[in-house]
Specification:
Strand content: under 5%
Order of helices and strands: HH
Largest sheet: none
Low-confidence stretches: none
Helix content: over 70%
Structural class: mainly alpha
Shape: elongated
Number of domains: 2
Mean pLDDT: 87
Number of helices: 2
Distance between the termini: 79 Å
Number of strands: 0
Length: 108
């Protein structure tokens, strides 16, 4: 196999060199951004772990407080209100389902 050479004009040679340097510059810039992204992602994971541990600690503290503090009338009323709200949600969903079924029956 023999080697063949191609001759470029001065303008073509300069354009090729410019394109090669531009490609190298873009590659290095992308690599720099990738390293920064990895660094920030690692810091984000550290912060998430820290936040989770602090939230767990806060949850434990709230449980201790809940055990220590007496039960108030407001808390009992709030729990009763939540139970009533759940029952209302179920009935509204059932009403909506029935209404949609009536509409479908009317269309048929």
């Amino acid at each position: 196999m023999s080697s063949e050479y191609v001759r470029f004009l001065a303008d073509e040679s300069q354009a090729i060199q410019k394109d090669a340097l531009t490609a190298e510059l873009e590659t290095l810039t992308s690599l720099k951004h990738l390293h920064e992204y990895k660094k920030f992602r690692h810091e984000g994971f550290k912060l998430k772990i820290s936040l989770k541990s602090r939230l767990d600690e806060l949850g434990e503290n709230l449980q201790v407080l809940d055990k220590v503090l007496p039960i108030s009338e407001a808390k009992i009323k709030h729990e009763e209100k939540e139970i009533v709200m759940h029952k209302e949600e179920k009935s509204t969903i059932e009403e909506e389902l029935a209404e949609i079924q009536r509409k479908l029956a009317a269309l048929r």
